[in-house]
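ok so heres the complex, two chains, lmk if somethin looks off
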Amino acid sequence: MADVASLNKEVQEQSNLLKSLRTSNADANLIDEAKKRLGDLKKALGAATGTKDPKEGTKKKDRLLLKTPKGTRDYGPTEMFCREYVERIVKDCFTSHGGSCLDTPVFERKEILAGKYGEDAKLIFDLQDQGGEQLSLRYDHTVPLARYLAMTGLTNTSSKLWQVGKVYRRDNPVMSKGRMREFSQADFDIFGQWDPMIPESEVLSLLTSILTRLEVGEFTIKLNHRKILDGIFEVCGVPEEKTRPISSAVDKLDKLPWADVRLEMTVEKGLDPDVADKIGEYVKLKGGEELLTKLEEDSVLKNSARAQEGLKDMAILFRLLRIYKITEKISFDLSLARGLDYYTGLIYEAIVEGSAPPGFGTNPAVPPSQGTESAVVAPSKPAKKASSKSKAKSGDDEDEEIDESQVGVGSIAAGGRYDNLVGMFVAAASGDSKKVAGLPCIGVSIGLDRIFAILWPKWEGRGMRAKETMAYVISVGDGHLEQRIELVRELREAGIKADFYAKNKPKLPTQFEAGERDEVPFAILIGGEELTNGYVRVKEQRWQVVDGKKEKIQASGKGELVKRTELIEWLKQTETLRTWSSGKLV
Amino acid sequence: MADVASLNKEVQEQSNLLKSLRTSNADANLIDEAKKRLGDLKKALGAATGTKDPKEGTKKKDRLLLKTPKGTRDYGPTEMFCREYVERIVKDCFTSHGGSCLDTPVFERKEILAGKYGEDAKLIFDLQDQGGEQLSLRYDHTVPLARYLAMTGLTNTSSKLWQVGKVYRRDNPVMSKGRMREFSQADFDIFGQWDPMIPESEVLSLLTSILTRLEVGEFTIKLNHRKILDGIFEVCGVPEEKTRPISSAVDKLDKLPWADVRLEMTVEKGLDPDVADKIGEYVKLKGGEELLTKLEEDSVLKNSARAQEGLKDMAILFRLLRIYKITEKISFDLSLARGLDYYTGLIYEAIVEGSAPPGFGTNPAVPPSQGTESAVVAPSKPAKKASSKSKAKSGDDEDEEIDESQVGVGSIAAGGRYDNLVGMFVAAASGDSKKVAGLPCIGVSIGLDRIFAILWPKWEGRGMRAKETMAYVISVGDGHLEQRIELVRELREAGIKADFYAKNKPKLPTQFEAGERDEVPFAILIGGEELTNGYVRVKEQRWQVVDGKKEKIQASGKGELVKRTELIEWLKQTETLRTWSSGKLV
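and the predicted structre for the whole thing:
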């Protein structure tokens, strides 16, 4: 065991080191060295498990490969403490904004997902046909929600639903940036007939609250409107049937220069170069309300009824966003197109400024948000591969070498209005394509793994704990198992999370070490004369990171003598426990 | 839309009605009538969607079947409010007992699951081979945990890990009893070298806390010890190679009479009838510590060293359980065997008394806990099918008619000590079967769907809300959209969950209705002279169930005038908000 386990651990540590070097933009030599060492360790591990050497075919078969599937990973205690925190904040904001929870199965009947994701359908995980239904793992939360709404006709109950859970895509993973094959998304959707742009501003206000409370760093929410975009295509002379392909090309402007996008439009998609140039003039525009004024005055756009509808929406939206006090987070960006066909109105995407890959800072107004071809926040191809179509063999399992340092976290949340999706399901179920009684919807998907990828280095830097245990009960001298269990039981019953060392007569230093490993703030000592007299000794301690290392701070010297019968009340009065009870993490 | 959706809704409502009739043991005629009506509705729905009539082959193909996969379901807002509550309590108990969280992927490499579940392996969901790894959905949390421990050699960090998540089994579902193909389990495991029975009593104390805090009703934790059981088989004369098959037969005693089990032993498994009868004398024993004394004095059992080891463990355990004050929940039951091979010491199973199916009450000491063949809480075959082996074609998708009223919820939690599972992984990975550096483990799995199945009728009876919204902001007169948004924004920022009606000029009754539908306790009215003078009017209301119907109770007549600037402080001082802040559900 020692060999494989300790090598595994070393690989993990080295991989973490490499990540933090990259995150902190360390010297290139240091990074190279760390990379080499990681490679060596991986080789050693391969040799130890006999799994990485294809020449030794027989040996390979004999041994079990201990790993998680490609693009997935385990999250251990410290990471889960952070992830649970993120989820708690997100859910709190969801319910603060009037949302109710929905939970759908992790797999759906295959035909439910069919025809919803365009060419990304190849990324869907299918279940094996074991007799019975054809099933697929869900690709996002939006399609299951639409299926649920079509099934229940839930127009008269809650109009705001949220879902938090994992979704699945057979894409090429970039693990350190939170681009996984199994990843967590938190969705919030508002449906029903409401007045223009009120649900839109509710969703944007929600997104702002979440990103602010999570302290992800400086962020921008890019906005655009499908009707304005389509109106631009119209007045520039894009034939109707080319509207969506040209829109897809525009969507790549966040990772490709205009020259490349223009080439795609003209050469690949056969657009008249003059038309492309006219589009180019529009889609480079970004800004705030002044851009809206400019577009409202644009005499060419006046010829498009669609564009005028979109502009009217945007004017209402900006007025509402001012009331919500979130205009400074907003960038009206005509290059934002979002890949999926089903958006019908406002579209948006949140970008964290600091999460761009190095070297991408040349045009700070255009952060690199890959992964916009999909409904929501997809774990898409890395930037450097974006233009090399021949290599984009998504879905295979060959290890492609991806230089993770060249990939940004990208967009951390995205969404838009999709007024026809539920209607599509209703029509398909009735067998009558004309019978589309739609249900207007708007939603946002938050990429929890990407948020985790951004928060985790900060969280580690602050040296956060992995547990909430508040009291560690320690025996001095004779073991006192019975007294320890009794005290722990009472503490737990009083809501004070407590633990003890599960041996009959553990040594004092061993118990202290165990409590300190979990950074338990209160060590409660029982034993000797004090125990006989009805007292316990309480030592308070806390930890902080000094120069990258954890240091213990003894808050109370030899500790305080507290009456055993008054201990629980005493603990509850401490600053530490009161802070913790108020929901703050210690 | 109207047709399918409203029929779907009717089917759901009728199905709920049928369930509550059964739960409340209503008159048989009433139940039959409700059953018939449900059948008619289902037929009507089938006709409307064109999916249930196999004669109309072409029509079937044209239409999309709007449903979740077999054995899975959606959980809507009210149900999720209850499920989230259950999860919160469970997690709180887990962290109270010193646990740290672990999260593993929903699928594993197929070879990781291979050879762990005996004949239940046929219930594993496999993913389709899409090029690359062979994957399967996880069957429980125990095997992924063991794989994680073998990979990381995590012997020096936290020794208590918990996981909450969905697991998957292609079994025949009984939905109303929480026996699903996709179901939620909450696991807690303790690993490492500790003194005898201390981890065991920690786990039992944890389980008792959880079931008590969740108010599942009267429950019993049945205990047995693999070494005692194996010792009994030894002294009765069971050949070593028949130990596990005979143990499997004993395990069925909770759903089959002794005569049937004896038949399985002698006819099917070729055991000497005299040996079977000797076993029969032991396995009918159950009780508390007095049973332990009886067994300690048993002169025949003295001949088995294994049995004596087990009895020694049980003596220590009973002493510890007294300190934890949970002996009255415990039943030492020699008929408990648990199906899986990998248990090596104490085994246990929690049963809720009230959840037995009707007609099973003849022997109250033997509650019907189906589903003990699996590692943990399995969604196993219903009682009436238990003995008809020929029909047990698990894994197919033909609709078997199951009379749900004849099936109990069964065991809601189960587990035991498994000291060799991690070692198995380590040995398999090293390719050296002798190199078993094991890691002693003990754990419990809690079946969250079964707990939900028990709690849900009570929860519904109490008329619990589906949301936490505390304030609904309502305009009187002129719409006041800006003022409503401003107030909602401020309330949310202050941590008071708030909402409003997303229209520009909604009618007063419409707004009241919307707030009342969500049972929001505070209606905050803005408008007119009061608004001009800087005041709002606050109306408090609450709901309670009277004779099965929800009734609104107006707590404050025409409401109170509160200064707009003092509103948030005023609300925070109310009893309602203080109760809610303390974590209690309103």
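quick notes: Confidence is low (pLDDT under 50) at residues 50-60, 357-402 of chain B. thats all i got rn
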